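Weekly modeling sync, notes
Attendees: AB, CL, MP (scribe)

Item 1: holo prediction request
CL wants a bound-state model with zinc ion before deciding which constructs to order. AB pointed out that an apo prediction alone won't tell us much about the pocket. Agreed to run with the ligand included and paste results into these notes for async review.

Input as submitted:
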Amino acid sequence: MHRTARVGLRVTRGQRRRLVGLLTSGGDVWACVLEINAWRRARQDRPLASYQELCQQLAISGPGCFGELDSEGARSVLRRYSDAWFATVKRRRDGDERARFPRRRRALMPIRWYYGTFTLEGRMLRIPVARRRPPLWVRLDRDPPYPPEHVRSVTLLYDAGRLWVDVTAEVPVTVYLAGQEPDPARMAGVDLGIIHPYAVAGPDSEGLLVSGRAIRAEHRMHLADGKARRRAAARRAPRPGQKGSRRWRHYRRRQRLAEARHHRRVRQAQHEAAKTVIAWAVERRVGTLAVGDPRGVLNLDAGRRHNQRTRDWRIGHLITVLKDKADLAGISLTLVDERGTSSTCPACHARIPKPPGRVLACPACQLTGHRDLLAAANIAARHGGGTTPTIIPAGVTHRRAGAHLPGVAPSRRDPRRRAHHRGARRSPGRHWPARTSPASG
Ligand SMILES: [Zn+2]
């Protein structure tokens, strides 16, 4: 099983120039392949797509074509092209007419090196370069979370104004003591939601609710912040064909950084939420997770506000991280159609109208319970979970996702949030810079 961690780089100015040079050369390799295939298409030749053919072209071009980039690194770009090409072929064969072949140039292209070509000693990483070039050692800003002998590849990339290395390692599946391993017969249903990214109904009438309110608040703050930024800078936007001002470039950079920070925060919070679920399941020896998959209904247009909500949800990521962590823990995960699970009573199977709040009460049999937990119980039952667990409030564990997000604790006020007294009637406004004398009025 492979796992990847993103690690930042601490580099000198010279090292930075060389690393960016490598990424630029990667972009050149990519552009070359695009160009070769454009020529071939113009003469109605078969395009070059297989990895072997592309590598032959690289060998023909000889050394020195791509700056400091070594052949292993250049081949990783060819591999990426070939994979993208065949993925498109497959999607087209499956009937997806919108699948496009690679066609866009990239200024910087991530470059991967496999085991044996790089050296990783503690935090020092030697990045391979072309022959007769001085060696390139860089420093990582934290220890990679895997033992060095398990590391299989490193990928150099540029994201959000910074250089990073993705360290991929082979990680063994968790080994348990006898009698503590997950039992495949013990099953839990998982309902995915926005307020509760994961609601889990397990065996023995136990449940877990992971609250995602902090994540939702982060999305709202980011949306408002982005709008305010755009409003503030709209006057400086260049006309089509006009070169932007330096101020405009500066604004764009700040915008990209804010965007990247927002994505990192949400990603991290979702990872933590999934980790909570798996830890909870392992503790209760749950061996099978049935996850309700709501993606069938997400492509329906529900108005711009709700569409934005479902996009922010990042449901695919929620499922992926849960699957990855379940695999690692030796828990099997299956996707179940969740249609109707949130509007059916798990005890008497009567249809219940969706309540406005979180508490669902069945008019037929007087069962009451948490809406998301009852949905999770239905999902478990649909997958053959057997008896419907009656959730009692005492058996529910509550956890919060995104405890690190700004604004969650009073001591970490979200800087994007406006001071509460600004604009209030008779408010003195901001207290900075400090006034020498108290304001009148
Ligand atoms: Zn009922």
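Recorded for review: Residues 2-170 form one domain.
Action items: CL to compare against the apo run; MP to circulate these notes.
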